[in-house]
Every structure is written in C-alpha cells, then in structure tokens.
Amino acid sequence: MTAPEPHGARQTARNGKDRSRIGLIVPSSNSTMETELPELFRRQSEATGHAYTFHSARATLKSVTPDELAAMVAKAGECAAAVSDADVDVIAYACLVAVMAQGPGAHEGSEAVIAESAAANGHPAPVSSSAGALVRTLQAMGARKVAMVTPYLPELTKMVTRYIEGAGIEVQDVIGLEVADNLEVGRLDPANLPSIAARLDRTGIDALVLSACVQMPSLAAVQEVEDALGIPVITAATATSYEILRALGHEPAISGAGRLLTGLTPIAAGVAGSGPANSSENNPGTTPTRVRTME
To answer: What is the reported pLDDT for 290?
Structure first.
C-alpha cells in the first residue's frame, strides 16, 4: 500500500469536516464492490459518525480471461487519473485477479503506477489494491496457512493460489466455482458459501478466505461462516476495506463482517513483509495445495 502522507492527514486538512472520499477502480462489469463496500462503510459510519462517499472509474472487463485481465491492468494509470479528479482521500484498485495474473508481487507495481498517475494529475493519494490488501492482511494477522474459495476457472484458481503462496502463506485447500463470465460471478448466491466452506479441508488453518474475488458476493455470509467455524474469515472486500481504513487513519468499527473489521483480530507485529517463510519453496516437505472444483 502506498502512502504519500501520514495516515489521515489529508482527510482532515482537505475536507475540514467529518467526511472521507474513497476512490475505486473497478472492472466495467463489476456489480458487487460498489454495493459491499458502501454497506461496510455505512456500518462504520453508524458506529463512528464519520461519513464516506465513493467515486469510481471503470476499466473494460467482461470475461475473466488472461487477455482481458492484462488489458484492464494496462488501463490502471488512466483510471487513476480520472478518479483522482474527484480529489479522493484514498484509491482502491478493486480487481484482485487482474493484478495477480501478472505474477507474484505484482500488486506493488500496480499500486505504484496508480499512485504516480494520481500525483501527476495533481491529486496524490494513498493507494491499496485488493490483491495487495488480501496478502498483506493475512500476513498482518499472522496467518501462515489458509483455505480459500474462488469463483474462477481452474487455471486462474491455481494462479491465485501460487500468488498467495508466493507471499509466504500456505494454501491448505481451495475450491474454485468455475465461472468465467464476470456478470455471472456477481450473481452467485452468498447463501451457498457456508456449505461450500464446510467442504474445505481446514486442518491447521489460521484463517479462511471466503471470497478471493471482489466480484463474488460474500458479505452476507462472512459472519455466519466465522461463527460456525470459529476461525477468522476474510474476503477480498473486507481486506480492502481494512486497508482503506488504515490509509485514512481510522480504527475499524464494523459489525457483522468478521472480527477483522471489528478491530478484535490480533495483528502480529513484524509479520507483514516477512517473506515466504512458510512457502513450499522454503519448505520442500509442504504438501501441494489441493485445488478442487464444485461437483
């Protein structure tokens, strides 16, 4: 996550009131990020009295294929300039798989491009990406082994798994739902997620990633799954929200979306950025991740 100024400094000086502007860069076919994030921040506002508004730029993406994902990444700088015209206080790049498809650690480059473009447009702002937010949040939680649900086709699910493992987090098990059309991903029913999560091999995991995609609806199921399984449950959307709050210097106070956003999850000092301490590269005996599809 890039941060050109201390957390919260710009919001206070610029607005002069209790309101923050959040910029989003989303796929053109995304129908979930602009519903789940406003709902999360409505709950934050309800708890704290601070208001949030959302301002989006869109990059063309209809099908979740390597070519379309690469084309979306190429538009990141242009979208950043457009959304920064709204003089936003933070920018979130909300397409996890587009970034991860570029290879391990690609979020750092994408975030830098967006930050540079916003600054060149005269409106510098801290930048997070859903890809970076997911791995950094897991690292900060001290999670060394996770299980995961994705909506992707098998090859993209394997790619997301490799990306997370490249950040030093072992993926114990993953179920991919094999949906290629991005609009159809947004129509998936979150009510099915508790039963899908129950099928995962959760042996020894520290956290569960209930949705490794900002387009796959999951907010309605996060608390139910966390309560049922008794382990921290996060999603690409809740991790992105967590980083947005950090960039603004705001303490999480969001109910009903997992313990991460209540501020109750212990954050391990010195874990973030610690490298692939638990990856298969450094642990030759690690069992290969089991990537499964719905049957």
So the answer is: 58
Domain CATH for 273? 3.40.50.12500
Burial class of residue 122 (count of CB atoms within 10 Å of its CB; 0-12, 13-18, 19+)? exposed
Mark which of 110, 131, 152 sits at the end of a domain. Answer: 131
Residues of the chain with pLDDT under 70: 2-17, 265-295
- Both 201 and 224 in one domain: the answer is yes
Residue 271, number of CB atoms within 10 A of its CB: 17
213 in active site? yes
Write down the catalytic residue from 22, 213, 244, 257.
Answer: 213
Domain range for residue 203? Answer: 133-235+268-293
Out of 95, 133, 140, 257, the active site residue is: 95
Give the C-alpha separation, 132 to 235, whole Å: 12
Choose the final residue of a domain: 115, 131, 147.
Answer: 131
DSSP-assigned states of every residue in 110-171: HHHHHHHHHHHTT----EEEHHHHHHHHHHHTT--EEEEEE-S-HHHHHHHHHHHHHTT-EE
Per-residue confidence (pLDDT) for residue 72, from 0 to 100: 80
Summarize pLDDT for 229-254 with one digit per residue, the tens.
999 999 999 999 999 999 999 999 99
pLDDT of 71 reads 80
Rounded to the nearest 5 degrees, what angle is found at the Cα of 281, between the Cα atoms of 275 and 284? 130
pLDDT in tens, 248-263: 999 999 999 999 999 8
Known active-site residue 79? no
- Tally of structural domains, the chain: 2
How far apart are the C-alpha atoms of 48 and 54, rounded to whole Å?
Answer: 18
